Amino acid sequence: MLAAGILALPAAMPSAAPTQVILLTLEGAIGPATADYVVRGIRKGADAGAGLVVLRMDTPGGLDTSMRQVIKEILAAPLPVAVFVGPSGARAASAGTYILY
Predict the structure, then answer these.
(1) 39, exposed or middle or buried, with CB in 10 Å at 0-12, 13-18, 19+?
(2) 37 vs 62: CA distance, rounded Å
(3) DSSP secondary structure string, 80-98?
(4) Which of 14-18, 40-44, 90-94 has the lowest mean pLDDT?
(5) Which residues contact 59 (CB under 8 A, 6 or more apart)?
(6) Which domains does the chain show, CATH number per domain?
(7) How far apart are CA 68 and CA 74, in angstroms?
(8) CA–centroid distance for 74 within its chain
(9) Of 99, 101, 90, whose CA–CA distance to 39 is shortest?
(10) What is the dihedral of CA 90, 94, 100, 101, to 10 degrees?
(11) In this predicted structure, what is the pLDDT of residue 95?
(12) Dihedral pair phi/psi, residue 28, rounded to 5°
């Protein structure tokens, strides 16, 4: 009886609709234009009802003020933001390291 209940459980659960993911690519130095791009991308994802924003980075670093703007936006985002360093051989130095964590 217990096995039959467990096997029937997946059929009783509602199916999840596909979730939209926004991919932002940050390449090069982090400055005011880059920070604006990331801020607008996160807000666009939130407005579109996306389930996740992914930020792919390859940066040597950049300006402290722009880094802080990006970090504040990530922390205040109403949706999850995942950050990773890519593609293979990419780096997240200096300001990029702070954004990554």
Answers:
(1) middle
(2) 14
(3) -EEEEE-STT--B-THHHH
(4) 14-18
(5) 26, 27, 28, 29, 30, 91, 92, 93, 94, 95, 96
(6) 19-100 (3.90.226.10)
(7) 10
(8) 8
(9) 99
(10) 150
(11) 97
(12) 95, -170
For residue 28, the 8-state DSSP code is S
Token pair listed for 84? 């990773």
What pLDDT is attached to residue 19?
Answer: 87
Residue located via tokens 């990029």: 96
Whether residue 59 contacts residue 28, with contact meaning beta carbons closer than 8 Å, is answered with yes
**Across the beta sheet with 81-85, what order do the strands follow?**
21-27, 52-58, 81-85
Listed in sequence order, the residues at least 6 apart from 15 whose beta carbon sits closer than 8 Å to its beta carbon are none
CA 18 to chain centre: 17
Rounded distance, CA 2 to CA 50, Å? Answer: 38
Alpha carbon 99 to its chain's center: 11
